[in-house]
Design a protein that fits this description.
Blueprint: E1 15-17, H1 18-25, H2 29-37, E2 50-52, H3 53-66, E3 76-78, E4 83-85, E5 91-96, E6 101-107, E7 114-120, E8 132-135
Helix pairs in contact: 1-2
The structure holds zinc ion.
Zinc ion binds near residues 80, 81, 85, 111 and 113.
Length: about 140
């Protein structure tokens, strides 16, 4: 989701027409129709079709959670925590996946499980000084 959506503008116990929902959130009606195709439930028993505020909030929150999270150069993505983390001790292994790209693997400081990030080999150099990288060989 490129645009930042103001979830707080939506009132949970209010029903919105497509147009109202679009105006409130600052998105286009086309976007709202797209959401309907992706599972947003709309009350279609009578016109105008209405969307419940709480349903809309839940749908958008889910989308935000599933959206790709931008990572800082020294961060890995922790799946259990569902957020970027700076690996414990800033220690990571680079595990080659192809000749030109691989996976950075580190430990999450919060849940102590492994977190990952795909990276091109060429970019490893940029991380010097930010992360302590051990290069693993193909095994
Ligand atoms: Zn974690």
């Amino acid at each position: 989701m490129a645009k930042r959506i103001n979830l707080r503008a939506i009132r949970a116990n209010t029903a919105y027409t497509f147009e109202e929902a679009a105006n409130t959130l600052g998105v286009s009606i086309v976007t709202i129709r797209g959401w309907e195709k992706r599972g947003l439930s709309v009350m279609r028993l009578q016109k105008p079709f209405l969307i419940l505020g709480c349903v809309l909030q839940e749908f958008i929150e889910k989308r935000i959670r599933n959206a790709k999270v931008p990572l800082d150069p020294d961060q890995l993505y922790c799946l259990p925590c569902r957020k970027p983390q700076i690996p414990m001790g800033r220690l990571v292994d680079y595990v080659p996946q192809t000749a030109t790209a691989g996976r950075l693997v580190g430990l999450c400081p919060e849940c102590e499980r492994t977190c990952n990030r795909m990276i091109s080999k060429a970019k490893l150099r940029d991380l010097a000084g930010k992360l302590d990288i051990a290069i693993r060989e193909h095994g």
